[in-house]
Amino acid sequence: MNQLRVIFYTNISVSIFLFLSSLIIIEAKNDNFIRFPPGKMVFPPNKRSDSSDPQQVHISLMGKDHMRVSWITNEHFHTQSIVEYGIRPNEYNATATGEYTSYRYFFYSSGKIHHVTIGPLEPATTYYYRCGGSGPEFSFRTPPTAFPLQFVVVGDLGQTEWTASTLKHIDSKNYDVLLLPGDLSYADTHQPLWDSFGRLVEPYASRRPWMVTQGNHEVETIPIIFPHPFKAYNARWPMPYLQSASTSNLYYSFEIAGSHVIMLGSYTDFDSDSDQFKWLAADLAGIDRVKTPWVFALVHAPWYNTNLAHRGEGESMRKALEELLYKARVDVVFAGHVHAYERFTRIYDNKAESCGPMYVTIGDGGNREGLALAFENPASPLSLFREASFGHGRLNVVNETHAHWSWHRNNDLDSVEADHLWFQSLSTTTNCCHQNSQSPSSSTTHNDEL
Question: Which Pfam families match (predicted)?
């Protein structure tokens, strides 16, 4: 029965791909790069020799010196929720025990989803680990506790050939933490796609912490029949929300090496009476910008967007939360949802504002729905760079004052840096850190430096 369901869901996904592949190839406006339609869906099989061995292994940060290790095993086998780890291959001098959960979605059963927190861990150190007492050995490197610090930012991944290309390009250079602003597997209620996604990302997500927030494809509700949202997402990808005093896995924050990262929920309540609004206000108020000069936020639906796709879908959230981020001098707001890349200048309330956040849309990881090719013309003066191509971004926080952002286009076999700029932390920008945040300042911005 399980095998028949997998074949059924796979056929649906392949049908979607064949429809999308009928789209014509679009040629770039300003260069010779050809934008191909979405690649084929990929469904990595479980290659573990023993069905009790761990699969879909991934890690996430848990406080300043701990890591959560997550994996899945067959529901019919008794496997302990333990992780053995150490700083030398095949030598484990520490063991941690956790717990497992599972969920059902109609006729689908998830298997046992294990979560174990290990630590305390030393910074900038490679650890070797084994899950459940058997199976292969994995390794990861902990992030540093001081600058420089490098994030990878990529949204709307999915599981296509372009996704595989994006992940290989990401892995070609070192980084410390991956940030994903929603839309992971594109399972869309077809639960076996969560498993194939977990296998696809395991070689990468088992070696560097992935910090994610939810997108619309994680909601997975069916009116009346299945009204419970985020069931698979919450079970498979728990984030450290309790450590940041949040009451929901859909929004949280964490700190790492002088950077405070806020992961917001576009698909849960965010108005002024909501728990998310109150949590965000308290979270921002607790940031010490002397010790933590950088603040970044991630949402799924962008607040600023000149693409014709998803126009205005983030507007109500912007109206509710933008002032909080502006007054707190958040440096950058990353978003997904729109399947293209777009970088804006610093903005507040639809106007260029030198003390407002820079806004970046990066929903171009490789999803099955294809690229959002149509932008409004003429371009808004607030939009400094935009292109409908698959790719990923790198945020290199060099020191307390300066960071470098770059966007890397998937150019077939190569990854090409197509956009980049240096910018300064608002906490160290004189007219912003000492300015009364009630009154916006005059703005001066440039394409290559902010």
Answer: Metallophos, Metallophos_C, Pur_ac_phosph_N
